[in-house]
Amino acid sequence: AIMVTIEVAGRAIRLLPQKAAFLPDTHTLLIADAHIGKATSFRALGVPVPRGTTSETLSLIGELVARHDARRVVFLGDFLHSARSHVAATLDAVSRWRALHPTLELVLVRGNHDDRAGDPPASLGFTVVDEPLMDGGLAMCHHPEAVAGAYVLAGHLHPCVSVHGRARERLRLPCFHFGAQVGVLPAFGSFTGMHPARVAPGDRVFAVADDAVRELPT
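The structure assignment produced for this chain is given below.
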C-alpha cells in the first residue's frame, strides 16, 4: 500500500489508499461518509446488493486503527445511512465491533444523513457534535464550507477524478481534493456513488487506485 503524507495548517496528514486519512500527531483516523447500513437500506427498497458490507466496512476500520495506532476515530458525517440503518442486524454488527475496541474514542460530526438517521445509540459510546469540530488549526466538518481562521477537512461530496486507462478508457477514481481553504475526503463506504471534483487552479488532487494514493497534475 502506498500512502502520501502532506501538510495542511501546519499538521501532517497521511492520505490512505483505504480512502481515509490519519493525523499522526493526535493519533486520529478521519473517515468521511461511511454510510453504515446503506446496503440494508437498498435491499429494503428492493435493490439487489451484496450482504456483509457493514461487517467489511467495520473490519477495515479496525485494521486501520491497528495499523496506524489510532486512539480516536472522527467520522466526518454520515456514519449511518438512514433510519433504516437502525435495524437490529446492522446495529448488532456495530455493537460487536465496538466491543472489540472499548477504549477507542469515537466522534461523529453530524452530517445531513445523520439528521435523518438519528444519532448512533448511546450504548455505542460516541461523542456526537455539530460542525465544525475545531482541532488545532483544522475544522472538522461534514459540509465542505470555509470556516474563518481554520482549514476545513470535510466529506459530503464523494469526490472523484477521471483519468485515462491504458486502453484509452476513462476511469473514475475516488480522490482527496485539497483547495485553498477546504479539503474533501473520498467517501469511505460502499455503494456511495461519486461526483467529479471541481478543481480550481492551485488545488491538489490525490487519486486512489490499486492500493495506492498518487497526486495528479492539475
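Interim note for the steering committee: The longest strand covers residues 170-178. Residues 53-68 form the longest helix (16 residues).
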